Amino acid sequence: LHPITVADVGEHALIANIRSRLTMPSWVVVGPGDDAAVLRPERGTLEVVTTDAQVEGIHFDRRFVPPEAIGHRALAVNLSDLAAMGGRPRAALLSLILPDRLTVDDLNGILDGLVSLASRHGTVLIGGNITRSPGPLVVDVTVLGTVRPRKALTRSGARPGDIVYVTGWLGDAAVGLKRLRSGAGAAEALTGCDVDRFLRPEPRVRAGVLLGQNRVATSCMDLSDGLADGVRQVAEASGVGIVLDGAVLPLSSSVKNWHEQHGGNPLDTALSGGEDYELMFTVRPRKHGALRGVRQRMGDLPITRIGVVTKARDLLVAASGDTRVLPAGFQHFR
Amino acid sequence: LHPITVADVGEHALIANIRSRLTMPSWVVVGPGDDAAVLRPERGTLEVVTTDAQVEGIHFDRRFVPPEAIGHRALAVNLSDLAAMGGRPRAALLSLILPDRLTVDDLNGILDGLVSLASRHGTVLIGGNITRSPGPLVVDVTVLGTVRPRKALTRSGARPGDIVYVTGWLGDAAVGLKRLRSGAGAAEALTGCDVDRFLRPEPRVRAGVLLGQNRVATSCMDLSDGLADGVRQVAEASGVGIVLDGAVLPLSSSVKNWHEQHGGNPLDTALSGGEDYELMFTVRPRKHGALRGVRQRMGDLPITRIGVVTKARDLLVAASGDTRVLPAGFQHFR
Fold first, then answer.
1. CA A266, CA B327: separation in Å to the nearest integer?
2. B220 DSSP β-pair partners
3. Are A211 and A298 in contact (CB under 8 A)?
4. CA separation for the pair B195, A54 (Å, rounded)
5. Cα–Cα distance measured from residue A156 to residue A298, given in angstroms and rounded to the nearest whole number
6. How far is A81 from chain B (nearest CA, A)?
7. How far B240 CA lies from chain A's nearest CA (Å)?
8. Does position B66 have pLDDT exceeding 90, yes or no?
9. B112-153, pLDDT tens digit by residue?
10. What pTM did the predictor assign?
11. Does A50 touch chain B (CB under 8 A)?
């Protein structure tokens, strides 16, 4: 009696199982189960589209990332990209590449995590694809959303004099991952918020939409590959420099505690850790009042001023009376 | 001096390389290189969306499928799904999951194949994602297109008395794959049209659009997993039966020759071979005249009458004076 695997059940039954969980709104003209999905576009909006994959052995380790977190993350990284454009998510496509040995229970866990996050953000799973993998489990998601004309936030709009802000906290996910790696197999016992921020990052959808609607931000991107990478990408796309104030980066007590126990510099974790899925954005100084309005509507989510955009195209971080060149961010194959 | 691999070059340079090949039309408000792409929808249309992955070791074997064919196939299977809905393709997202050892030359070949097919079908590569694979090469594509309201073709509209048709030829891809497998390593020498039909299937985009526009077809699907699977899916979705005339299935001389040399029944190849990416569709008898109009505008692509839709929910194939139950089609994990 071994646990039932996806190979035991077969493609058609797996698809039927997924379809049975879903209910379609009226704007889905043809939902899952046909050759393609058909949607009625939302009037007066532009469409925002993005895709991002979670690959076993690269983005997650199944020894300490439970199935439901894999599903959550696979959608969250896409919602975060959409949020960074000021987009409101609407629909998702799920491309599953599954090893034969994956159990149906684990697949259901992945779906639970994905569908639960989707429904919290008004996102409908409209279709997808299932195929076999001869190697790792891959969960590849495409998200479609909407943005009002001229409200899309890009990476290229930062101008000298703009103030640089970031939502939430930096470094938690990196510390959470370190904690999970060191205690692999005992994930249940690790209930720190850093661990949870790695396993179940909360995409800043509402923040992105508010920043776009009010035309508060001149540029925006999400910090999937760390703050240093974000700064570099926005500066490059905008043709500007950025100076960060290392002393004010928002570090949680969890990040500080970890470094007090294990050494190392929390600033490095904040700059290069990655996977925080916070939004970094730039604001013209005269838009300060409008930003206050966004803050009020954002509830508990902090927004921290972390630097300034400069004409000189240097990327610097000032800390402890010293100014140094920004470290490189994470990139795949490097 | 080893060939340059994707691991040598790094994610950012790979993305820059892809972006440099692309030109964006005016309806792409934000193209590749930002967190997400932003598109202006086409007025008065519904949106059609589909996703499909090509996985090394499952869908292709790199020993006899050249990189350019991998790219072609990855897009073609999606365009075929869109065609089956009567959709006109517009934009594609490319999710690449690449082993470190993949050479930059091979990646360029994949892109060549994909971009070349895309431009022939007016499809713009608007974005995507690149990540590492610890195992197989995966090329996962999402295609967005348009269809006029009430012109979408589904699997569920077949009614008793409808005539069943298929475009093109059946079994070529299966024979082509057999030929490639038996002569692995000598792909250049194999120039048979069956081999080409496996490596570079031509999605029936124009046929699908014409069938949808004229409201000729009551149902339609593409034959990715073989005619038997297609018949089964349409019959199930429509709540009907289908009787095929095995004597009239469109077999190319290539399929007939192969079976003359190697034995076996060409009918089985036509029914269960799969990967032909032809369209199977059903037409009410009184729409015969409208179908003639579609035929005329389809040029050289044959359309063959292969069966009839029945009220009795049996799936049968009549051949050589005998009627038998339809074999099962291909499904993953089975």
1. 63
2. B281
3. no
4. 34
5. 24
6. 5
7. 16
8. yes
9. 999 999 999 999 999 999 999 999 999 999 999 999 999 999
10. 0.95
11. yes
